[in-house]
Amino acid sequence: MTHPIYIKLREQIDQYSVGFPKAASGVDLKILKKLYTEEEAELFLDLSMQLESPDSVSNRTNRDLKKTTDMLEAMAQNGLVFRKRKKNAVYYAAIPFVIGSFEFQLKRMDKDFARMVDEYFTESFFNNMGGDHPAAQNHPRQTIG
What we know:
This protein is mostly helical. The chain has a single domain, classed as Arc Repressor Mutant, subunit A. Helix content is 49%, strand content 8%. It has 7 helices and 2 strands. The protein has a two-stranded antiparallel sheet with strand order 1-2. The longest helix has 18 residues, at 111-128. The protein is globular.
């Protein structure tokens, strides 16, 4: 059974730019589970797309500063959050799946992840974008009723 945190994470990411729509097969949640630990998902849910320092995140969410800083940096290195260095400070922000964490996965890409993303794009993502991509042509368009 998928932990509810991944459902909340999908719902949050779905609000960004081009979205991250639900897939009937559940492959959307499998992708998130592969990318994020439960703890990383919880931290991501406390972020916004506005740049914020680890100190600010830590204070706002009542988290330990060192652990928050370390997690944000690890998540940035894994392409799960955006990082900006400015002078002697580092800031982090939530990012969408596309254009965002998907493109940052090149270092971590494996056959399993590539297969899941292909399935997801074909099943849900391209249909959400209007179905104009050739991969979506073989699937019925979703309609809002």
